[in-house]
Write a structure and sequence with these properties.
Layout: E1 13-18, E2 34-39, E3 44-46, E4 48-52, E5 66-70, H1 76-81, E6 83-86, E7 91-96, E8 101-106, E9 115-120, E10 129-132, E11 136-141, E12 148-152, E13 166-170, E14 183-187, E15 195-197, E16 206-211, E17 220-225, E18 241-246, E19 250-253, E20 256-259, E21 285-289, E22 299-305, E23 312-322, E24 329-337, E25 342-348, E26 354-361, E27 365-373, E28 384-391, E29 399-409, E30 412-416, E31 427-428, E32 439-446, E33 460-468, E34 473-482, E35 485-492, E36 499-507, E37 510-518
Parallel strand pairs: 3-10
Antiparallel strand pairs: 1-2, 4-5, 5-8, 6-9, 7-8, 9-11, 12-13, 13-16, 14-17, 15-16, 17-18, 19-30, 20-29, 21-22, 22-29, 23-28, 24-27, 24-29, 25-26, 25-28, 31-32, 32-35, 33-34, 33-36, 36-37
């Protein structure tokens, strides 16, 4: 075959001839002179088929290439010379798809949050000599700011673990160099809190850290995300987010530890339980962690991935852990993963009966004592702890990582640190128990002083409403003026169906929303 290095002239006759002196691969001459003629036609014009980003895009990447697709192969030099970019941006041009696609790769980011215009003039020519039929122009706006998707703890949260893992999820991978001086953690006396930072999750768009030492029970803390936090495209956060939260007031003293999770022992893998289904067995396991623990040198850790909306994994002990008949309360220290999946404990008794006890929704991070009264289990003699169940919550995450440590009985009854003064911050606490059936309690706090703008004398209008998962209002729990102090709501959901609900508190400029789960 013959491919011309430059286009044939328009409206010109060409003759191709093969002399009879030419030989074949067998060294035999051609018997006759072979020739043919053809006449070229008019030059083939070109048109633009599509481009990326599309014209009018408002959230274009600040570092991704743009592409222009033509309907015929193009002359590379004249076409590149016909392209202009405003504002002027440095980069490299490349051709793909048999010279029908022009790709521009910027070597420096586009200017964040500005309109950019790319124009291809009619000076661009096709490979066959025809010009672009009409000038082509597109405009797009690059991303102006880095958006925060979620944060834990949220502003105003209370009952937070002393070993809380702070997690802020953004829409793009995080630029590590932007964080020093732009992420700050203070106690209530404005002292810096020393941190352990997980740098492995920056590519996932997550900032994650925990205090190097446990925080103080009942104390207030403040995390500040400043406007200079940026992603790998150098797009800044452009706002300041202040997250104030309160550490749980309850102080526990360990009782008799009946499993310390220092070794795998007789614990089985999730796939070995007949009650497990809807999991990715390759991504789901139980092992002993040597990096996160509450006491000793290890803790049990479940890593899991659900592949079914109603999936369930069960970690069982082939030799259930015996609980003395004199025990009053059973508990496990659990390090949550804010997956909002459901946690249950599984017990068995001397008659062979099994008891699945709902414990809580996994809506926290850090170590928390999760317990159940022995009398609430309803078992006969020879009670034993058989295992842990995690059920998939179809509305939330399909994967997670949950730690367990220091299984125990008869720990000292929790004592709350009593404050001699009124609350200093607003707080809406997680309902307890959660999941529940049919009653649960919600605690909230109204601060004294300037933080609580009054509407009637020394009181503040407080509104607490309940919504279903679709955002439809279900009930009004509070709608009245209240003075600064600590309050609780005893909520009876007997008339509601099982499901996930949201409760929202509005008081002055304070608003907070939390989830509750009704299981009947």
């Amino acid at each position: 075959g013959f491919v011309p290095s430059v286009p044939f002239e328009q409206n010109t006759q060409y003759t191709v001839a093969v002399q009879n002196t030419a030989t074949t691969v067998y060294n035999v001459n051609l018997t006759n002179l072979y020739s043919f003629s053809f006449t070229t036609g008019e030059a083939t014009p070109a048109s633009v088929v599509s481009s990326t980003p599309a014209d009018g895009s408002t959230l274009a990447s600040n570092f991704a290439p743009f592409t222009i697709d033509f309907d015929v192969p193009m002359d590379s030099i004249t076409t590149i010379n016909a392209v202009t970019i405003i504002p002027d941006t440095e980069g490299d041009y490349n051709w793909e798809n048999n010279d029908t696609r022009l790709v521009f790769n910027p070597t420096t980011p586009y200017t964040a949050g500005e309109e950019h215009t790319v124009t291809v003039s009619t000076d661009a020519k096709s490979f066959f000599g025809g010009n672009l039929t009409e000038q082509y122009s597109i405009s797009f706006n690059t991303r102006a700011k880095l958006n925060l998707l979620s944060v834990y703890p949220a502003n105003g949260d209370a009952d937070i673990s002393t070993t809380v893992l702070f997690r802020a999820a953004f829409e793009m991978p995080i630029l590590a160099a932007s964080l020093p001086g732009n992420v700050l953690f203070y106690d209530e006396n404005d002292n810096f809190v020393d941190l352990r930072v997980n740098t492995d999750v920056y590519p996932l768009g997550i900032i994650e850290f925990r205090p190097r030492n446990p925080l103080e029970n009942g104390k207030n803390y403040r995390i500040i995300l400043k406007e200079g936090v940026a992603d790998v495209e150098s797009v800044p956060f452009r706002e300041e987010q202040i997250i104030e939260f309160t550490i749980e007031k309850t102080v526990y003293t360990d009782g008799q530890i009946i499993e310390d999770f220092e070794a795998i022992g007789t614990w089985l893998q999730p796939g070995e339980s007949d009650s497990t289904f809807g999991i990715d067995e390759e991504q789901t396991s139980f092992k002993i962690s040597s990096s996160v623990w509450r006491n000793g040198t290890g803790a049990g850790v479940i890593s899991y991935t659900f592949v079914d909306d109603f999936g369930r994994l069960v970690i069982e002990n082939s030799t259930p852990v015996s609980i003395a008949s004199s025990s009053n309360e059973f508990g496990l220290w659990v390090y949550g993963d804010i997956s909002y999946n459901f946690l249950e404990y599984k017990f068995t008794d001397g008659s062979g009966s099994e008891f699945d006890i709902p414990i809580d929704t996994l809506n926290w991070t850090g170590w928390k004592m999760k317990s159940v009264k022995i009398s609430d289990i309803g078992a006969s003699s020879n009670l034993a702890f058989k295992g842990v169940t995690i059920k998939n919550n179809v509305a939330t995450s399909n994967e997670g990582l949950v730690y367990f440590d220091d299984m125990q009985v008869d720990f000292v009854t929790p004592v709350e640190q009593v404050e001699s003064h009124l609350p200093t911050t607003f707080a809406l606490e997680q309902n307890y128990p959660n999941p529940f059936n049919p009653t649960t309690t919600i605690h909230y706090s109204l601060p004294a002083g300037k933080a609580a703008t009054t509407t009637s004398g020394n009181s503040l209008l407080v509104n607490v409403k309940l919504f279903d998962i679709l955002g439809r209002e279900v009930a009004t729990l509070v709608n009245t003026n209240q003075k600064p102090g600590n309050y609780k709501i005893e909520f009876d959901a007997s008339g509601l169906p099982s499901g996930v609900y949201l409760y929202r508190m509005d008081a002055g400029q304070f608003t907070n929303v939390k989830k509750m789960v009704l299981l009947k």
